[in-house]
Design goal:
Elements: E1 9-13, H1 17-28, E2 34-39, H2 53-56, H3 67-72, E3 75-79, E4 82-86, E5 91-94, E6 99-101, E7 104-107, E8 111-113, E9 124-125, H4 130-137, E10 145-149, H5 153-164, E11 168-173, H6 180-183, H7 185-197, E12 201-204, E13 207-213, E14 216-221, E15 226-229, E16 231-234, E17 238-240, H8 243-247, E18 256-258, E19 269-271, E20 276-280, E21 283-284, H9 291-305, E22 317-322, E23 325-331, E24 338-342, E25 350-354, E26 360-366, H10 369-381, H11 387-391, H12 397-403
Parallel strand pairs: 1-2, 1-7, 2-3, 7-19, 9-16, 10-11, 10-16, 11-12, 18-20
Antiparallel strand pairs: 4-5, 5-6, 8-17, 13-14, 14-15, 20-21, 22-23, 23-26, 24-25, 25-26
Helix pairs in contact: 1-9, 10-12
The protein binds flavin-adenine dinucleotide.
Flavin-adenine dinucleotide binds near residues 14, 48, 82 and 108.
């Protein structure tokens, strides 16, 4: 591809939210070249429903787009797995033979579920793919016992889904209240309390192994106790999938290293999503593992591929659902400052992290989408707000957004 000209073709490796969004954004920006979307799963699908309504059987297929979208947008879905990249000649070797070639390659390989270094680690289930969810679902229901190791976002959601199917669930975490850095201690405590209310047993402790004896599983705890289980799920985070990038000699450090436009260390290769780690101003940012960040980085890489400016960075946002409650958080709930609460724990409850200069660093809440969107905007704009307004459930944050001058005004 001559430098400065548009690529004639793009192969996207990985059809999760990042890869799919990159393909969609290329078309939205008017790109007319060939786009191939490679994934072993074939038809692209979304991951958040895998611990929620897909796991309970309420959603048949967590599609990222209607099947007709791919044809209408001239995006070719190629079922297959990349086993090798050759960045210099733009080729991708496929498992079982075959090769794809393109002017530009986009790596959007996401990650794999982290597992635990147990001697019985092969007895553990994990949840990252649709087939993981299908297998897990077959193990849930009345008269089934599920032990979940890790009460973070995915562990908690699976506990909720499994309990709704009548499964007896024990949820273990080494800390008494998980998710404090993500949503603040007040909201984290309330969210965690929902488990016991729903009949899920929560346990603080450290599992050290899983063993099978007489056909039954036991989770062995550090304190010498043992928990019986039919199924044990390790919900202990994910590891970015950087295998292809590392083997191709691209810069990797706990993620494929990219700039704001998804450029890797090779001019022909871009990368996006959970697999990447951003470098900026000479430093490395923390990796993100949330849907919105994956989608936005796919869109940024599409801009980069076309030689256009990527959109401005967005304030981080994620959501999580459990027991009918929809919790969301924006910004940084661990930033230094003070906490302001609005309302009392339950639907509509919000917690704000306010910096000493009166601006917001983060906000989190339950069933409070509009207010959290306004809070996200307040963070973006750096608008100072009064703590009294934050704590007042009748003060409309959207009005504060319009009324208050920003720091830079
Ligand atoms: C169960 C679950 C629930 C979640 N819930 C939430 C939530 O409620 N809120 C939230 O904000 N985030 C949630 N997330 C996180 C969110 O789904 C991820 O951040 C997002 O999926 C990352 O998108 P991605 O495209 O980078 O990676 P992925 O979604 O992992 O997609 C990567 C794709 O690359 C493919 N691939 C990998 N290697 C190859 C290869 N060699 N060749 C071809 N294809 C390859 C994989 O098959 C996969 O389809 C959840 C994640 C999981 C697993």
């Amino acid at each position: 591809m001559p430098s400065g000209s548009l690529p004639r073709s793009v192969v996207v490796i990985g059809a999760g939210p990042a890869g799919f969004s990159a393909a969609a954004e290329l078309r939205r920006r008017g790109y007319q070249g060939a786009i191939q979307l490679l994934d072993p799963a074939g038809m692209p699908y979304d991951r958040p429903p895998l611990s929620k309504d897909y796991l309970t059987g309420g959603l048949a297929f967590p599609a990222l787009a209607e099947p007709g979208w791919y044809g209408s947008n001239a995006v070719e879905v190629v079922p297959g797995t990349a086993v090798k990249l050759d960045p210099d000649n733009g080729s991708v070797t496929l498992a079982g033979g075959g090769e794809l070639r393109a002017d530009v390659l986009l790596l959007a390989t996401g990650g794999v579920a982290r597992t635990l270094p147990f001697t019985g680690s092969d007895l553990l289930h994990t949840l990252r793919s649709r087939s993981d969810a299908d297998l897990l679902r077959s193990r849930l229901g009345p008269d089934k016992q599920l032990v979940i190791i890790g009460a973070g976002l995915i562990g908690a959601e699976v506990a909720s889904s499994a309990a709704s199917l009548g499964t007896a669930v024990v949820l273990i975490d080494p800390v008494p209240v998980p998710l404090v850095p993500a949503v603040g201690p007040e909201l984290a405590a309330y969210l965690h309390s929902l488990h016991e209310t729903a009949g899920v047993r929560t346990l603080t402790g450290l599992p050290i192994d899983v063993v099978r004896a007489n056909g039954a599983l036991s989770v062995l705890m550090e304190d010498g106790s043992a928990l019986p289980a039919d199924t044990v799920l390790a919900a202990v985070g994910m590891v970015p999938d950087t295998t292809l990038a590392a083997a191709a000699g691209l810069g990797v450090d706990d993620g494929v290293l990219v700039d704001a436009a998804g450029r890797t260390s090779h001019p022909r290769v871009f990368a996006a999503g959970d697999a990447v780690r951003r470098s900026s101003n000479g430093g490395l940012q923390r990796r993100t593992e949330h849907w919105d960040a994956a989608v936005r980085s796919g869109q940024a890489a599409a801009a980069g591929i076309l030689g256009e400016e990527p959109p401005e960075d967005a304030v981080p946002w994620f959501w999580t659902d459990r027991y009918g409650m929809h919790a969301e958080a924006v910004g940084n709930m661990s930033a230094s400052g003070t906490t302001v609460e609005r309302g009392s724990p339950g639907p509509g409850y919000m917690v704000f992290r306010q910096k000493p200069d009166g601006t917001l660093a983060g906000a989190a809440g339950i069933n409070a989408g509009n207010s959290l969107r306004a809070a996200r905007r307040l963070i973006t704009l750096g608008k100072p707000v009064e703590a009294a307004d934050l704590s007042n459930p009748d003060a409309d944050l959207r009005r504060l957004l319009r009324a208050r001058p920003s720091k830079t005004d």
